[in-house]
Amino acid sequence: MLNNYLIYLKFLDEKFAKFFDKQKPYIFCKKGCAKCCKNAQFPYSEIEIFYLMKGAKLLSHEIQENIKQNVENIREQKSKFDGERFLYNCPFLIDDVCSVYNYRGIVCRSFGLMYKVADGKNKVPFCCFQGLNYSNVVEEGTSIVSGEKFENLGLEEEPLAFNISYEFLTDSDFEKGFNFKFGDKKPMIEWFL
Ligand code: SF4
Ligand code: SF4
What we know:
Layout: H1 2-22, E1 43-45, H2 46-56, H3 61-80, E2 93-94, E3 97-98, H4 106-110, E4 115-116, E5 122-123, H5 147-153, H6 166-169, H7 172-178, E6 185-187
Antiparallel strand pairs: 1-6, 2-3, 4-5
The structure holds iron/sulfur cluster (2 copies).
């Protein structure tokens, strides 16, 4: 079953590599930019967390201890939280670098691209509003592509929005097609609480 999930991950990685490549002029991701690993929920299915933990077990004792401490800290923050949507920094983020990069889940692989939402509209990743991805081509404070900005960039490849919602990428059709099961899905931290 894990092998089939890995085949699916490879299939996704190839697709995302093409998408990111197409959108290169609008993407400002770089190592050490970890804004998308903070203040979020990080949906993870059972098979994704299983694979993530496989990677975590290969880390040095020191890093594993750091991760455990991060989980403890988040547990404490959560116990004091009484709002509706608990957000946290990913416990696997160490010194602003993903400690389990090759083992990361689906949401971590797709983040950063412009995407389509249920009503067919396009949405930019939140980092656009911090001067990062797509900020050079959308109207300030919106997800609307500016014809003027696009023209000024003198590029051939238009910014595109992709169907990369977590719900879509973990749809049961993919389970059937690749012959594995995602299992339960929940915010990453809940697998550890
Ligand atoms: S998606 Fe945005 S926040 Fe995440 S690494 Fe790329 S530029 Fe940084
Ligand atoms: S698993 Fe890695 S890429 Fe995903 S949120 Fe955590 S630190 Fe970021």
